[in-house]
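Session log. Operator J.P. requested a structure for one protein chain; no other inputs attached. Running the standard single-chain path with token output.
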Amino acid sequence: MDEQSHLMQTLVGVTLTGHPVPLPVPHDGTDARNKQDIGDILHQIMTITDQSLDEAQAKKHGLNCHRMKAALFSVLCEIKEKTGLSIRGSQDEDPPDPQLMRLDNMLLAEGVSGPEKGGGAAAVAAATAAVGVGADNSIEHSDYRAKLSQISQIYHTELEKYEQACNEFTTHVMNLLREQSRTRPISPKEIERMVNIIHRKFSSIQMQLKQSTCEAVMILRSRFLDARRKRRNFSKQATEILNEYFYSHLSNPYPSEEAKEELAKKCAITLSQVSNWFGNKRIRYKKNIGKFQEEANLYAAKTAVTATQAVAAAVHNSQTNSPATPSSGSSGSYSLPGSGDIFMSMSGLNGSYQPTQVPNTGQTQGNGGWHDAVTPSSVTSPIEGANSIHSDTSN
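Structure written below.
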């Protein structure tokens, strides 16, 4: 302000007491020449952007070779110090963006970024271990890995383009500032501050890229891995094995740990799946006993037929290994004994044999709250006729 007031006083022509001093009136030719010079300077300033590269280089060379360049540089330094356009302190540095850090951690956890550079092996291994690995879902795992690898490749390709563009623009600005520092005062810290400003501007592009990649990975997980966590029915063979065990132990349908392990091995499922199946089966059976009555009859008849076939095979083997010969009245063949003979024979062979029995209606067990389990009162074998096997619980 002092310089401006001093300049205005000089131009207007006032004394220290504030009284105006008459200035000499310039000639008309001098005034016109000054106006023309100012007009030329303004015109040159306005047409700087329209200059070609060669013209700009010529102007720059002329400025650098001018004898008043040092004086111009010192004046610019004084103006800069007085107007306060100095370097900002370190307190103006912005902290790291928390959202960007969160996106980086998510990409690292999913295996998109990090040391493996898009392999995603750790993420796939963790996801498959949480869900369970089987032969049926190996194709889904390969599809998931292929899709994740594709997302990772796109991410790294775009990230390289972003880094290249950011570095090119930053280098261009740094070279431009170094070139201008020959004419106007620019310190290295100011250049560094400008680089940080450029990086903050570019960080919005980086954040958008990482956010889009995270969204793509989440959609992929929901389509593949999360869909595999839904309920899936067991195979028909596994269901048959579990139902057969359940109805054969209907009086106490609580398998031991050894039985669970054996069933899990036969059905190719986990131990927890076996436990969950029996728990759900007991609940469904209690809620709708009438519906499962027919199913219980079928499995009981199947068990009876299996036991009869096993007894017949055992008797046949014992008679084949016996040295006794058939009676002379037979023509070299003998008929299989009836069902009563089979049971008597097994009683003589094994000491005691009890045919498969189904518990009576209203039998109560105290194990695990299994109460009022209604079971079929009579089971008839589907092979009734020749051997006419009847299993009555009243007997």
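Operator note: The mean pLDDT is 69.
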